[in-house]
């Protein structure tokens, strides 16, 4: 009998999809097998025009508790270099459609880094987030020192990275690390409703907006404004722009086709 898949993809037929990490025996910790499976699914989604928004989640008790320490304890520096694990993380971060992380329970270490690869983070009231890698003799290695700093600023990032301290969802919200906090039982449905709302919008405009925010954040302001302007102008070549504006004038619901 084959082992159940540790990462699954469910297309809902309404422009949304759910990617679920399912290793409850390991609190969804990310080992090499899981990371490769997640990367493969993200590449599949990236090429699927029928998917306009994606929810990434774990289980109702834990999002991802971190990297699988048992998968790394005997590894040396050369082993880690040869893994080239950045490829697996890039596959998540480079999905062109909006990604919404639905975070229940722990999002620690690689789990928080995974959530930060997404565009929106919906956290449950009982969620606990942090970068505790220093407690096991290493540092965040998949964006935790970089995406975290960009999200919350130097001094809060230093606090979390240097102490390994965990924070709750409300503090993470105040810090700017999560987008919204809801009851633990409402996390997935809230994330899915957010995905459904995005999926009803013109996908080319949504993807251009995502790219402008992400690329512009690391560019000088003049270059970022130029990117925004060119993206804005480019969308005037789409039929969805014509449909959207005409529907507004006609006071009717637009029908966007991604063209």
Structural features, described:
This protein has helices at 32-46, 77-83, 86-93, 110-116, 147-152, 154-163, 169-175, 187-199, 203-217, 221-234, 239-250, and strands spanning 7-11, 16-21, 53-57, 62-64, 99-103, 106-108, 120-124, 128-130, 166-168, 180-182. It is globular and about 60 Å long. 44% of the residues lie in helices and 16% in strands. A six-stranded mixed beta sheet has the order 1-2-3-5-7-10, with helices on both faces. Strands 4-6-8-9 form a four-stranded mixed beta sheet. It is built from eleven helices and ten strands. With 259 residues, the protein is of the alpha/beta class. The chain starts with 6 loop residues before the first strand and ends in a 9-residue tail after the last helix. α1 (32-46) packs parallel to α3 and α9 (203-217) runs antiparallel to α10. β1 and β2 form a beta hairpin. The mean pLDDT is 94. The longest helix has 15 residues, at 32-46. It has two domains: 7-199, 2-enoyl-CoA Hydratase, Chain A, domain 1 (Alpha-Beta Complex); 203-250, Lyase 2-enoyl-coa Hydratase, Chain  A, domain 2 (Orthogonal Bundle).
């Amino acid at each position: 009998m084959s082992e159940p898949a540790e990462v699954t993809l469910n297309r809902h037929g309404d422009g949304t999809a759910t990617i679920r990490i399912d290793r409850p025996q390991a609190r969804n910790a990310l080992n090499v097998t899981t990371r490769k499976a997640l990367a493969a699914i993200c590449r599949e989604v990236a090429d699927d025009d029928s998917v306009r928004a994606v929810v990434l989640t774990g289980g109702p008790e834990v999002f991802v508790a971190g990297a699988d320490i048992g998968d790394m304890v005997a590894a040396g520096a050369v082993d880690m270099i040869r893994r080239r694990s950045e490829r697996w993380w890039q596959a998540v971060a480079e999905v062109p459609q909006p990604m919404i992380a639905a975070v229940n329970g722990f999002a620690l270490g690689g789990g928080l880094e995974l959530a930060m690869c997404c565009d929106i983070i919906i956290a449950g009231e009982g969620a606990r987030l942090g970068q505790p890698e220093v407690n096991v003799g290493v540092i965040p290695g998949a964006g935790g020192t970089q995406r975290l700093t960009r999200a919350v600023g130097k001094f809060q990032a230093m606090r979390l990275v240097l102490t390994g301290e965990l924070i709750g969802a409300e503090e993470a919200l105040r810090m700017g690390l999560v987008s919204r906090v809801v009851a633990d039982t409402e996390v997935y449905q809230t994330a899915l409703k957010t995905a459904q709302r995005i999926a009803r919008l013109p996908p080319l405009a949504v993807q251009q907006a995502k790219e402008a925010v992400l690329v512009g954040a690391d560019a000088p302001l003049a270059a970022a404004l130029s990117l925004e302007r060119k993206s804005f102008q480019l969308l005037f070549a789409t039929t969805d722009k014509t449909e959207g504006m005409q529907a507004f004038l006609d006071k009717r619901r637009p029908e966007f086709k991604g063209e």
